[in-house]
Amino acid sequence: MVTTVTSKGQVTIPKPVRDRLGIETGSAVDFQMEEDGRVVLVKAGSTRPVSRFEALRGRAGRGLSTDQIMKLTRGED
Predict the structure, then answer these.
(1) What is the Cα–Cα distance from 50 to 1, expressed in whole angstroms?
(2) Which pLDDT does position 48 carry in this prediction?
(3) Which tens digit of pLDDT belongs to each residue from 28-67?
(4) Of 11, 29, 35, 71, which is the most exposed, with the fewest CB atoms less than 10 Å away?
């Protein structure tokens, strides 16, 4: 979603973003600067949602060893 910056440095937050973050008239927002150069807009006082990938981190079991995978790919028992 693209928006234009006014001469006063103001922007309009698009409605789908306001709806998703629960931002209403009078809500405070926070701009968080990430190390990779991104700027993240969050509703002030709320916690940043965990990404779907971060939520799954560490959930997989130990998994198969390389030898077990090789046996499976070769059709060995």
Answers:
(1) 22
(2) 63
(3) 999 999 999 999 998 888 666 667 887 777 777 788 889 9
(4) 35
> In angstroms, rounded to a whole number, what is the distance separating the alpha carbons of residues 63 and 65?
7
The helix, strand and coil proportions of the chain, stated in percent and rounded to the nearest 5, come to 25, 15, 60
Phi, psi torsion values for 32, nearest 5 degrees: -105, 125
Q: How far apart are CA 25 and CA 12, in angstroms?
A: 12
Number of other CB atoms surrounding residue 43 within 10 Å:
17
Calpha distance 13→48 (Å, rounded): 18
Pairing outcome for strands 39-43 and 29-33:
antiparallel
